[in-house]
UniProtKB/TrEMBL annotation:
A GO term for molecular function: kinase activity
Catalytic activity line of the entry: ATP + protein L-histidine = ADP + protein N-phospho-L-histidine
Species this chain originates from: Bradyrhizobium yuanmingense
Coiled-coil intervals: none
Residue ranges occupied by any Phytochrome chromophore attachment site domain in the UniProt entry: 141-298
Entire-sequence positions represented here: 1 to 508 of 848
Keyword terms: ATP-binding, Chromophore, Kinase, Nucleotide-binding, Phosphoprotein, Photoreceptor protein, Receptor, Sensory transduction, Transferase
Record protein name field: histidine kinase
Amino acid sequence: MNQAVNLTNCDREPIHIPGSVQPFGFLLAVLSDFTICMASDNVESFLGTDVADLLQRPLSGVISGAAVETIRSRVDHLGGPDATERLFGVELQPGKPPFDLSIHLSGVYLIIEAEPSVHEPGVNSGELVRLMLERIRKTRGMADLAREAARQLKVLTGFDRVMVYQFHPDGSGEVIAETAESGLESFFGLRYPASDIPRQARALYQRNWLRIIADVDARPAALMSTATHNAALLDLSMSVLRSVSPIHIEYLRNMGVAASMSVSILRDGKLWGLFACHHYSPRYISFDKRTASELFGQMFSWIVEGREREGDVAYEARAHQVQERLIEIAASHDHSRRAIVDFLRDYRKMIECDGVAVWSDNTIALEGETPTEDEVKDLVAFINRTSPGRIFASAEIAQVYAAGQAFRDRAAGFLAIPISRTPRDCLIFFRREVTRSVKWAADPNKVYDEGPHGPRLTPRKSFELWQETVAGQSKPWSAADIRIAESLRVTLLEVILQLSDLAARERR
Ligand code: BLA
Protein backbone atom coordinates (compact mmCIF):
# COMPACT_ATOMS: atom_id res chain seq x y z
CA MET A 1 0.00 0.00 0.00
CA ASN A 2 1.03 3.57 -0.57
CA GLN A 3 2.89 4.50 2.64
CA ALA A 4 1.51 8.03 2.62
CA VAL A 5 -2.07 6.86 3.13
CA ASN A 6 -3.36 7.16 6.68
CA LEU A 7 -6.64 7.74 8.46
CA THR A 8 -6.78 11.43 7.66
CA ASN A 9 -6.03 11.35 3.95
CA CYS A 10 -7.66 8.09 2.95
CA ASP A 11 -9.35 9.67 -0.02
CA ARG A 12 -5.92 9.71 -1.66
CA GLU A 13 -5.46 5.93 -1.60
CA PRO A 14 -5.49 4.76 -5.24
CA ILE A 15 -7.85 1.85 -4.63
CA HIS A 16 -8.54 1.35 -8.36
CA ILE A 17 -4.96 0.18 -9.08
CA PRO A 18 -4.13 -2.35 -6.35
CA GLY A 19 -2.02 -4.54 -8.67
CA SER A 20 -3.77 -7.64 -7.37
CA VAL A 21 -7.09 -9.47 -7.35
CA GLN A 22 -9.08 -11.53 -4.90
CA PRO A 23 -8.24 -15.20 -5.33
CA PHE A 24 -11.76 -16.56 -5.90
CA GLY A 25 -11.10 -16.12 -9.61
CA PHE A 26 -8.29 -15.19 -11.97
CA LEU A 27 -7.61 -12.30 -14.30
CA LEU A 28 -6.03 -12.14 -17.75
CA ALA A 29 -5.27 -8.95 -19.67
CA VAL A 30 -4.87 -9.35 -23.43
CA LEU A 31 -3.91 -6.93 -26.17
CA SER A 32 -6.01 -6.30 -29.28
CA ASP A 33 -4.30 -9.27 -30.99
CA PHE A 34 -5.34 -11.46 -28.03
CA THR A 35 -1.84 -12.07 -26.71
CA ILE A 36 -1.73 -12.32 -22.94
CA CYS A 37 0.32 -9.54 -21.34
CA MET A 38 -0.83 -9.75 -17.73
CA ALA A 39 -2.22 -12.48 -15.52
CA SER A 40 -2.92 -13.02 -11.86
CA ASP A 41 -0.42 -15.35 -10.20
CA ASN A 42 -3.13 -17.79 -9.08
CA VAL A 43 -4.03 -18.75 -12.66
CA GLU A 44 -2.35 -22.14 -12.39
CA SER A 45 -4.86 -23.34 -9.81
CA PHE A 46 -7.66 -22.73 -12.34
CA LEU A 47 -6.08 -23.50 -15.73
CA GLY A 48 -3.15 -25.71 -14.76
CA THR A 49 -0.57 -23.46 -16.45
CA ASP A 50 2.01 -21.53 -14.48
CA VAL A 51 1.68 -17.77 -14.83
CA ALA A 52 5.20 -17.38 -16.22
CA ASP A 53 4.39 -19.80 -19.06
CA LEU A 54 1.25 -17.96 -19.91
CA LEU A 55 2.55 -14.45 -20.50
CA GLN A 56 3.16 -13.48 -24.11
CA ARG A 57 1.23 -16.47 -25.39
CA PRO A 58 -1.86 -16.09 -27.56
CA LEU A 59 -5.07 -16.57 -25.59
CA SER A 60 -5.97 -19.50 -27.87
CA GLY A 61 -2.85 -21.28 -26.62
CA VAL A 62 -4.35 -21.44 -23.13
CA ILE A 63 -8.11 -21.74 -23.58
CA SER A 64 -10.10 -23.42 -26.32
CA GLY A 65 -10.62 -21.77 -29.72
CA ALA A 66 -14.37 -21.90 -29.15
CA ALA A 67 -14.02 -20.02 -25.85
CA VAL A 68 -11.83 -17.38 -27.51
CA GLU A 69 -14.49 -16.93 -30.21
CA THR A 70 -17.23 -16.58 -27.58
CA ILE A 71 -15.21 -13.85 -25.90
CA ARG A 72 -14.30 -12.16 -29.17
CA SER A 73 -17.95 -12.00 -30.20
CA ARG A 74 -18.70 -9.93 -27.11
CA VAL A 75 -15.87 -7.43 -27.44
CA ASP A 76 -17.79 -5.42 -30.04
CA HIS A 77 -20.47 -4.74 -27.43
CA LEU A 78 -17.96 -3.04 -25.16
CA GLY A 79 -18.39 0.36 -26.77
CA GLY A 80 -19.55 2.79 -24.07
CA PRO A 81 -17.64 3.99 -21.05
CA ASP A 82 -17.59 1.48 -18.19
CA ALA A 83 -19.26 -1.19 -20.32
CA THR A 84 -18.86 -4.77 -19.13
CA GLU A 85 -20.13 -8.04 -20.55
CA ARG A 86 -20.85 -11.21 -18.61
CA LEU A 87 -20.81 -14.74 -19.89
CA PHE A 88 -22.01 -17.66 -17.82
CA GLY A 89 -21.08 -21.32 -17.96
CA VAL A 90 -18.28 -21.03 -20.52
CA GLU A 91 -16.11 -24.11 -21.00
CA LEU A 92 -12.59 -22.66 -21.16
CA GLN A 93 -10.86 -26.01 -21.54
CA PRO A 94 -12.48 -29.05 -23.16
CA GLY A 95 -14.02 -31.42 -20.65
CA LYS A 96 -13.19 -29.19 -17.66
CA PRO A 97 -15.80 -27.46 -15.43
CA PRO A 98 -17.18 -24.20 -16.84
CA PHE A 99 -16.42 -20.65 -15.75
CA ASP A 100 -18.41 -17.43 -15.42
CA LEU A 101 -16.67 -14.52 -17.12
CA SER A 102 -16.71 -10.77 -16.90
CA ILE A 103 -14.96 -8.87 -19.68
CA HIS A 104 -14.29 -5.17 -20.11
CA LEU A 105 -11.79 -2.74 -21.58
CA SER A 106 -9.26 -0.91 -19.43
CA GLY A 107 -7.03 1.40 -21.44
CA VAL A 108 -5.54 -0.66 -24.26
CA TYR A 109 -6.27 -3.94 -22.51
CA LEU A 110 -9.15 -6.35 -22.71
CA ILE A 111 -9.64 -7.64 -19.18
CA ILE A 112 -10.99 -11.16 -18.78
CA GLU A 113 -11.96 -12.24 -15.30
CA ALA A 114 -13.08 -15.79 -14.64
CA GLU A 115 -14.44 -17.72 -11.69
CA PRO A 116 -15.79 -21.28 -11.55
CA SER A 117 -19.51 -21.44 -12.43
CA VAL A 118 -21.85 -22.31 -9.62
CA HIS A 119 -25.13 -23.71 -10.75
CA GLU A 120 -27.88 -24.31 -8.23
CA PRO A 121 -30.45 -26.70 -9.66
CA GLY A 122 -34.00 -25.40 -9.50
CA VAL A 123 -32.93 -21.79 -8.95
CA ASN A 124 -33.66 -19.10 -11.50
CA SER A 125 -32.28 -15.69 -10.65
CA GLY A 126 -34.81 -13.81 -12.76
CA GLU A 127 -37.61 -15.48 -10.85
CA LEU A 128 -35.92 -14.71 -7.51
CA VAL A 129 -35.62 -11.01 -8.35
CA ARG A 130 -39.20 -10.90 -9.64
CA LEU A 131 -40.47 -12.20 -6.29
CA MET A 132 -38.21 -9.84 -4.32
CA LEU A 133 -39.57 -6.86 -6.23
CA GLU A 134 -43.13 -7.98 -5.70
CA ARG A 135 -42.52 -8.02 -1.95
CA ILE A 136 -40.87 -4.61 -1.73
CA ARG A 137 -43.46 -2.96 -3.95
CA LYS A 138 -46.14 -3.83 -1.40
CA THR A 139 -44.45 -1.70 1.28
CA ARG A 140 -45.51 1.84 2.16
CA GLY A 141 -43.07 4.71 2.74
CA MET A 142 -39.27 4.74 2.68
CA ALA A 143 -38.51 3.11 6.03
CA ASP A 144 -40.70 0.13 5.31
CA LEU A 145 -39.36 -0.16 1.76
CA ALA A 146 -35.73 -0.15 2.93
CA ARG A 147 -36.39 -2.69 5.68
CA GLU A 148 -38.14 -5.12 3.35
CA ALA A 149 -35.43 -4.69 0.70
CA ALA A 150 -32.72 -5.51 3.26
CA ARG A 151 -34.71 -8.56 4.32
CA GLN A 152 -35.10 -9.74 0.72
CA LEU A 153 -31.41 -9.30 -0.07
CA LYS A 154 -30.53 -11.26 3.05
CA VAL A 155 -32.73 -14.13 1.89
CA LEU A 156 -31.14 -14.08 -1.58
CA THR A 157 -27.52 -13.90 -0.43
CA GLY A 158 -27.55 -15.48 3.03
CA PHE A 159 -25.38 -12.77 4.61
CA ASP A 160 -25.57 -12.54 8.43
CA ARG A 161 -26.37 -8.83 8.28
CA VAL A 162 -27.78 -6.61 5.54
CA MET A 163 -28.02 -2.84 5.99
CA VAL A 164 -29.29 0.00 3.86
CA TYR A 165 -26.80 2.83 4.18
CA GLN A 166 -27.94 6.24 2.93
CA PHE A 167 -25.57 9.08 2.10
CA HIS A 168 -26.18 12.69 3.11
CA PRO A 169 -25.16 15.60 0.89
CA ASP A 170 -21.87 16.00 2.82
CA GLY A 171 -20.86 12.38 2.15
CA SER A 172 -21.62 11.21 5.68
CA GLY A 173 -24.12 8.39 5.96
CA GLU A 174 -26.68 6.62 8.04
CA VAL A 175 -27.92 3.07 8.50
CA ILE A 176 -31.62 3.49 7.66
CA ALA A 177 -32.54 -0.18 7.68
CA GLU A 178 -31.00 -3.35 9.01
CA THR A 179 -31.77 -7.00 9.25
CA ALA A 180 -29.40 -9.29 11.09
CA GLU A 181 -29.10 -12.70 12.66
CA SER A 182 -30.15 -12.61 16.29
CA GLY A 183 -27.50 -11.80 18.87
CA LEU A 184 -25.61 -9.34 16.67
CA GLU A 185 -25.09 -5.79 17.84
CA SER A 186 -27.27 -3.40 15.88
CA PHE A 187 -25.94 -0.47 13.82
CA PHE A 188 -29.43 0.73 12.94
CA GLY A 189 -29.80 4.51 13.13
CA LEU A 190 -26.06 5.16 13.53
CA ARG A 191 -24.31 7.84 11.51
CA TYR A 192 -20.83 7.85 10.01
CA PRO A 193 -18.42 10.51 8.74
CA ALA A 194 -17.73 10.79 5.01
CA SER A 195 -14.23 9.36 5.45
CA ASP A 196 -15.58 5.88 6.30
CA ILE A 197 -16.36 5.44 2.62
CA PRO A 198 -13.86 7.89 1.15
CA ARG A 199 -14.54 10.01 -1.90
CA GLN A 200 -12.71 7.84 -4.45
CA ALA A 201 -14.51 4.74 -3.17
CA ARG A 202 -17.86 6.51 -3.53
CA ALA A 203 -16.90 7.57 -7.06
CA LEU A 204 -16.02 3.97 -7.89
CA TYR A 205 -19.26 2.63 -6.45
CA GLN A 206 -21.16 5.05 -8.64
CA ARG A 207 -19.63 3.37 -11.71
CA ASN A 208 -19.48 -0.22 -10.56
CA TRP A 209 -22.66 -1.47 -8.86
CA LEU A 210 -21.37 -4.39 -6.83
CA ARG A 211 -18.31 -5.52 -4.93
CA ILE A 212 -17.76 -8.56 -2.88
CA ILE A 213 -14.99 -9.23 -0.40
CA ALA A 214 -15.29 -12.97 -0.15
CA ASP A 215 -12.69 -13.52 2.57
CA VAL A 216 -10.84 -10.74 4.37
CA ASP A 217 -8.00 -13.16 5.18
CA ALA A 218 -7.50 -14.43 1.64
CA ARG A 219 -4.08 -13.58 0.23
CA PRO A 220 -4.59 -11.41 -2.86
CA ALA A 221 -3.25 -12.83 -6.13
CA ALA A 222 -0.64 -10.46 -7.55
CA LEU A 223 -0.88 -9.39 -11.18
CA MET A 224 2.19 -10.38 -13.22
CA SER A 225 3.07 -8.81 -16.52
CA THR A 226 5.52 -8.99 -19.38
CA ALA A 227 8.39 -6.50 -19.19
CA THR A 228 6.74 -3.91 -21.43
CA HIS A 229 3.58 -3.61 -19.32
CA ASN A 230 3.01 -2.50 -15.75
CA ALA A 231 0.45 -4.42 -13.70
CA ALA A 232 0.78 -1.94 -10.83
CA LEU A 233 -0.91 0.65 -13.04
CA LEU A 234 -3.70 -1.51 -14.43
CA ASP A 235 -6.99 0.30 -13.75
CA LEU A 236 -9.35 -2.20 -12.10
CA SER A 237 -12.27 0.21 -11.54
CA MET A 238 -14.69 -1.97 -13.47
CA SER A 239 -13.22 -5.27 -12.33
CA VAL A 240 -15.18 -7.80 -10.27
CA LEU A 241 -12.11 -9.32 -8.60
CA ARG A 242 -10.28 -6.07 -7.64
CA SER A 243 -8.52 -6.63 -4.34
CA VAL A 244 -9.59 -4.47 -1.46
CA SER A 245 -8.03 -1.49 0.30
CA PRO A 246 -5.96 -2.72 3.30
CA ILE A 247 -7.49 0.03 5.45
CA HIS A 248 -10.96 -1.24 4.71
CA ILE A 249 -9.82 -4.82 5.36
CA GLU A 250 -8.65 -3.68 8.77
CA TYR A 251 -12.03 -2.01 9.40
CA LEU A 252 -13.81 -5.28 8.62
CA ARG A 253 -11.42 -7.34 10.73
CA ASN A 254 -11.73 -4.99 13.69
CA MET A 255 -15.44 -5.64 13.81
CA GLY A 256 -15.07 -9.37 13.34
CA VAL A 257 -16.45 -9.40 9.80
CA ALA A 258 -14.95 -12.04 7.50
CA ALA A 259 -16.80 -11.27 4.27
CA SER A 260 -18.70 -8.31 2.94
CA MET A 261 -20.62 -7.26 -0.12
CA SER A 262 -22.09 -3.96 -1.13
CA VAL A 263 -24.53 -3.06 -3.85
CA SER A 264 -24.85 0.54 -4.97
CA ILE A 265 -28.11 2.47 -4.86
CA LEU A 266 -28.20 5.37 -7.32
CA ARG A 267 -30.61 8.24 -7.74
CA ASP A 268 -30.43 10.33 -10.91
CA GLY A 269 -27.04 8.76 -11.66
CA LYS A 270 -25.59 9.78 -8.27
CA LEU A 271 -24.70 7.44 -5.43
CA TRP A 272 -27.65 7.61 -3.01
CA GLY A 273 -26.61 4.76 -0.76
CA LEU A 274 -25.47 1.16 -0.50
CA PHE A 275 -26.76 -2.18 0.60
CA ALA A 276 -23.96 -3.18 2.96
CA CYS A 277 -23.81 -6.88 3.80
CA HIS A 278 -21.62 -8.58 6.42
CA HIS A 279 -20.83 -12.17 7.15
CA TYR A 280 -18.91 -13.51 10.14
CA SER A 281 -17.22 -16.29 8.22
CA PRO A 282 -15.89 -16.23 4.64
CA ARG A 283 -18.73 -16.07 2.16
CA TYR A 284 -18.60 -16.39 -1.59
CA ILE A 285 -21.71 -15.59 -3.64
CA SER A 286 -21.90 -16.94 -7.19
CA PHE A 287 -21.59 -14.49 -10.08
CA ASP A 288 -25.13 -15.41 -11.01
CA LYS A 289 -26.47 -14.39 -7.57
CA ARG A 290 -24.30 -11.27 -7.55
CA THR A 291 -25.81 -10.33 -10.89
CA ALA A 292 -29.29 -10.89 -9.42
CA SER A 293 -28.34 -8.72 -6.39
CA GLU A 294 -27.14 -6.01 -8.71
CA LEU A 295 -30.35 -6.09 -10.74
CA PHE A 296 -32.30 -5.91 -7.49
CA GLY A 297 -30.20 -2.86 -6.48
CA GLN A 298 -30.98 -1.15 -9.78
CA MET A 299 -34.71 -1.80 -9.51
CA PHE A 300 -34.66 -0.72 -5.87
CA SER A 301 -32.97 2.53 -6.97
CA TRP A 302 -35.87 3.31 -9.29
CA ILE A 303 -38.43 2.55 -6.62
CA VAL A 304 -36.58 4.83 -4.16
CA GLU A 305 -36.60 7.62 -6.72
CA GLY A 306 -40.38 7.35 -6.98
CA ARG A 307 -40.92 7.07 -3.22
CA GLU A 308 -38.76 10.09 -2.47
CA ARG A 309 -40.67 12.20 -4.97
CA GLU A 310 -43.95 11.00 -3.48
CA GLY A 311 -42.61 11.83 -0.01
CA ASP A 312 -41.70 15.41 -0.99
CA VAL A 313 -45.03 15.92 -2.71
CA ALA A 314 -46.96 14.61 0.31
CA TYR A 315 -44.91 16.78 2.71
CA GLU A 316 -45.62 19.92 0.73
CA ALA A 317 -49.27 19.00 0.19
CA ARG A 318 -49.75 18.60 3.96
CA ALA A 319 -48.21 22.01 4.55
CA HIS A 320 -50.53 23.54 1.98
CA GLN A 321 -53.58 22.07 3.65
CA VAL A 322 -52.58 23.62 6.96
CA GLN A 323 -52.01 26.94 5.24
CA GLU A 324 -55.42 26.87 3.64
CA ARG A 325 -57.00 26.23 6.99
CA LEU A 326 -55.08 29.19 8.41
CA ILE A 327 -56.53 31.46 5.77
CA GLU A 328 -60.05 30.22 6.47
CA ILE A 329 -59.72 30.60 10.21
CA ALA A 330 -58.13 34.00 9.85
CA ALA A 331 -61.07 35.18 7.78
CA SER A 332 -63.39 34.55 10.69
CA HIS A 333 -60.97 35.41 13.47
CA ASP A 334 -62.02 38.18 15.77
CA HIS A 335 -58.92 39.01 17.77
CA SER A 336 -57.11 40.69 14.92
CA ARG A 337 -53.37 40.17 14.85
CA ARG A 338 -53.22 37.85 17.83
CA ALA A 339 -54.31 35.23 15.35
CA ILE A 340 -50.74 34.91 14.11
CA VAL A 341 -49.75 33.84 17.61
CA ASP A 342 -52.76 31.58 18.07
CA PHE A 343 -51.71 29.54 15.03
CA LEU A 344 -48.47 28.43 16.73
CA ARG A 345 -49.40 24.76 16.95
CA ASP A 346 -50.35 24.71 13.28
CA TYR A 347 -47.01 26.10 12.11
CA ARG A 348 -45.31 23.21 13.81
CA LYS A 349 -47.18 20.77 11.62
CA MET A 350 -45.99 22.43 8.43
CA ILE A 351 -42.23 22.18 8.60
CA GLU A 352 -40.44 19.32 10.34
CA CYS A 353 -39.03 20.90 13.52
CA ASP A 354 -38.62 20.48 17.27
CA GLY A 355 -39.97 23.89 18.24
CA VAL A 356 -41.32 27.13 16.88
CA ALA A 357 -41.36 30.75 18.06
CA VAL A 358 -43.32 33.70 16.78
CA TRP A 359 -42.62 37.36 17.38
CA SER A 360 -45.60 39.47 16.42
CA ASP A 361 -46.67 42.91 17.58
CA ASN A 362 -44.13 42.85 20.37
CA THR A 363 -45.51 39.61 21.72
CA ILE A 364 -43.49 36.46 21.79
CA ALA A 365 -44.87 32.94 21.87
CA LEU A 366 -43.02 29.63 22.02
CA GLU A 367 -44.03 26.08 21.30
CA GLY A 368 -42.00 22.89 21.71
CA GLU A 369 -38.23 22.90 22.15
CA THR A 370 -36.89 26.43 21.63
CA PRO A 371 -34.41 28.86 23.16
CA THR A 372 -35.80 30.99 26.03
CA GLU A 373 -37.89 34.10 25.41
CA ASP A 374 -34.94 36.41 25.93
CA GLU A 375 -32.73 34.35 23.67
CA VAL A 376 -35.38 34.40 20.96
CA LYS A 377 -35.76 38.19 21.29
CA ASP A 378 -32.03 38.70 20.78
CA LEU A 379 -32.05 36.29 17.85
CA VAL A 380 -34.94 38.16 16.23
CA ALA A 381 -33.02 41.41 16.61
CA PHE A 382 -29.99 39.79 14.99
CA ILE A 383 -32.05 38.38 12.11
CA ASN A 384 -33.63 41.76 11.47
CA ARG A 385 -30.22 43.39 11.42
CA THR A 386 -28.58 40.91 9.07
CA SER A 387 -31.28 39.55 6.83
CA PRO A 388 -34.31 41.83 6.88
CA GLY A 389 -37.26 40.74 4.80
CA ARG A 390 -35.75 37.45 3.67
CA ILE A 391 -35.92 33.84 4.74
CA PHE A 392 -32.85 33.00 6.75
CA ALA A 393 -31.92 29.42 7.57
CA SER A 394 -28.92 27.76 9.14
CA ALA A 395 -28.27 24.23 10.35
CA GLU A 396 -25.42 25.43 12.58
CA ILE A 397 -26.50 28.48 14.51
CA ALA A 398 -23.16 29.26 16.18
CA GLN A 399 -21.58 29.63 12.74
CA VAL A 400 -23.80 32.58 11.82
CA TYR A 401 -24.75 33.91 15.25
CA ALA A 402 -22.12 33.68 17.98
CA ALA A 403 -24.60 34.03 20.86
CA GLY A 404 -26.31 30.90 19.55
CA GLN A 405 -23.46 28.93 21.10
CA ALA A 406 -25.29 29.21 24.44
CA PHE A 407 -28.35 27.30 23.27
CA ARG A 408 -27.13 25.25 20.34
CA ASP A 409 -27.86 22.02 22.21
CA ARG A 410 -31.54 23.04 22.37
CA ALA A 411 -31.74 24.69 18.97
CA ALA A 412 -28.79 24.15 16.66
CA GLY A 413 -30.75 24.95 13.52
CA PHE A 414 -33.23 27.70 12.75
CA LEU A 415 -35.32 28.80 9.81
CA ALA A 416 -36.71 32.31 10.12
CA ILE A 417 -39.57 33.66 8.05
CA PRO A 418 -40.23 37.41 8.12
CA ILE A 419 -43.99 37.97 8.28
CA SER A 420 -44.24 41.74 7.98
CA ARG A 421 -41.99 44.62 7.20
CA THR A 422 -42.74 47.03 10.00
CA PRO A 423 -42.44 46.12 12.74
CA ARG A 424 -40.25 43.22 11.68
CA ASP A 425 -42.22 40.33 12.95
CA CYS A 426 -41.03 36.84 12.31
CA LEU A 427 -41.73 33.20 12.70
CA ILE A 428 -38.82 30.90 13.56
CA PHE A 429 -38.61 27.13 13.27
CA PHE A 430 -35.99 25.37 15.41
CA ARG A 431 -34.31 22.00 15.10
CA ARG A 432 -32.33 20.40 17.89
CA GLU A 433 -28.74 19.27 17.62
CA VAL A 434 -28.62 16.22 15.38
CA THR A 435 -26.45 14.17 17.75
CA ARG A 436 -29.22 14.53 20.31
CA SER A 437 -31.80 13.22 17.91
CA VAL A 438 -29.71 10.14 17.06
CA LYS A 439 -30.11 7.37 19.57
CA TRP A 440 -27.44 4.91 20.55
CA ALA A 441 -28.28 1.55 19.11
CA ALA A 442 -27.52 -1.38 21.42
CA ASP A 443 -24.57 -1.42 23.79
CA PRO A 444 -22.08 1.42 23.31
CA ASN A 445 -19.57 -0.13 25.68
CA LYS A 446 -18.86 -3.21 23.66
CA VAL A 447 -15.18 -3.96 23.39
CA TYR A 448 -13.57 -4.11 19.96
CA ASP A 449 -10.34 -5.39 18.57
CA GLU A 450 -7.81 -2.83 17.55
CA GLY A 451 -5.67 -3.04 14.45
CA PRO A 452 -2.48 -1.08 13.73
CA HIS A 453 -4.56 1.99 12.90
CA GLY A 454 -6.28 2.01 16.28
CA PRO A 455 -9.87 1.67 17.41
CA ARG A 456 -11.24 4.33 15.03
CA LEU A 457 -11.82 1.68 12.38
CA THR A 458 -15.03 0.20 13.76
CA PRO A 459 -18.61 1.34 13.20
CA ARG A 460 -19.03 2.17 16.88
CA LYS A 461 -15.89 4.28 17.28
CA SER A 462 -16.49 5.86 13.94
CA PHE A 463 -20.00 6.82 15.07
CA GLU A 464 -18.43 8.56 18.08
CA LEU A 465 -16.14 10.47 15.76
CA TRP A 466 -19.11 11.49 13.68
CA GLN A 467 -20.85 12.77 16.83
CA GLU A 468 -17.82 14.94 17.63
CA THR A 469 -17.62 16.35 14.13
CA VAL A 470 -21.27 17.36 13.93
CA ALA A 471 -21.69 18.79 17.43
CA GLY A 472 -23.73 21.97 17.17
CA GLN A 473 -25.43 21.05 13.90
CA SER A 474 -29.06 20.25 13.21
CA LYS A 475 -30.55 18.24 10.40
CA PRO A 476 -30.13 20.44 7.31
CA TRP A 477 -33.08 22.39 5.92
CA SER A 478 -34.09 20.78 2.64
CA ALA A 479 -35.20 22.41 -0.59
CA ALA A 480 -38.75 21.28 0.27
CA ASP A 481 -38.51 22.98 3.70
CA ILE A 482 -37.46 26.24 2.05
CA ARG A 483 -40.23 25.98 -0.54
CA ILE A 484 -42.81 25.52 2.22
CA ALA A 485 -41.30 28.46 4.12
CA GLU A 486 -41.59 30.70 1.05
CA SER A 487 -45.20 29.85 0.54
CA LEU A 488 -45.99 30.17 4.25
CA ARG A 489 -44.49 33.66 4.17
CA VAL A 490 -46.84 34.67 1.37
CA THR A 491 -49.82 33.14 3.19
CA LEU A 492 -49.01 34.89 6.44
CA LEU A 493 -48.61 38.25 4.74
CA GLU A 494 -52.04 37.67 3.19
CA VAL A 495 -53.53 36.67 6.52
CA ILE A 496 -52.08 39.75 8.16
CA LEU A 497 -53.56 41.96 5.45
CA GLN A 498 -56.93 40.31 5.92
CA LEU A 499 -56.75 40.71 9.66
CA SER A 500 -55.83 44.34 9.48
CA ASP A 501 -58.66 44.94 7.01
CA LEU A 502 -60.96 43.30 9.49
CA ALA A 503 -59.62 45.44 12.31
CA ALA A 504 -60.01 48.57 10.19
CA ARG A 505 -63.62 47.67 9.38
CA GLU A 506 -64.34 47.05 13.04
CA ARG A 507 -62.95 50.45 13.93
CA ARG A 508 -65.19 52.17 11.41
C1 BLA B 1 -15.21 0.91 1.81
N1 BLA B 1 -16.51 1.40 3.90
C2 BLA B 1 -16.36 0.82 2.65
C3 BLA B 1 -17.56 0.13 2.31
C4 BLA B 1 -18.42 0.28 3.38
C5 BLA B 1 -17.75 1.04 4.38
C6 BLA B 1 -19.83 -0.28 3.44
C7 BLA B 1 -17.84 -0.60 1.02
C8 BLA B 1 -17.08 -1.88 0.89
C9 BLA B 1 -17.76 -3.07 1.50
O1 BLA B 1 -18.71 -3.58 0.92
O2 BLA B 1 -17.37 -3.53 2.59
C10 BLA B 1 -18.22 1.52 5.64
N2 BLA B 1 -19.39 -0.40 6.57
C11 BLA B 1 -19.10 0.91 6.52
C12 BLA B 1 -19.85 1.58 7.53
C13 BLA B 1 -20.58 0.66 8.17
C14 BLA B 1 -20.30 -0.59 7.55
C15 BLA B 1 -19.81 3.02 7.85
O3 BLA B 1 -20.79 -1.67 7.87
C16 BLA B 1 -21.48 0.93 9.29
C17 BLA B 1 -22.21 0.04 9.90
N3 BLA B 1 -12.75 3.44 6.05
C18 BLA B 1 -12.67 4.10 7.25
C19 BLA B 1 -11.59 5.01 7.20
C20 BLA B 1 -11.00 4.86 5.94
C21 BLA B 1 -11.77 3.88 5.23
C22 BLA B 1 -11.21 5.91 8.32
O4 BLA B 1 -13.42 3.95 8.20
C23 BLA B 1 -9.83 5.52 5.36
C24 BLA B 1 -8.82 5.98 6.10
C25 BLA B 1 -11.50 3.49 3.90
N4 BLA B 1 -13.59 2.23 3.21
C26 BLA B 1 -12.35 2.71 3.03
C27 BLA B 1 -11.92 2.37 1.70
C28 BLA B 1 -12.95 1.66 1.11
C29 BLA B 1 -14.00 1.57 2.08
C30 BLA B 1 -10.60 2.74 1.07
C31 BLA B 1 -12.99 1.07 -0.28
C32 BLA B 1 -12.73 -0.40 -0.25
C33 BLA B 1 -12.57 -0.92 -1.65
O5 BLA B 1 -13.57 -0.96 -2.39
O6 BLA B 1 -11.43 -1.27 -1.99
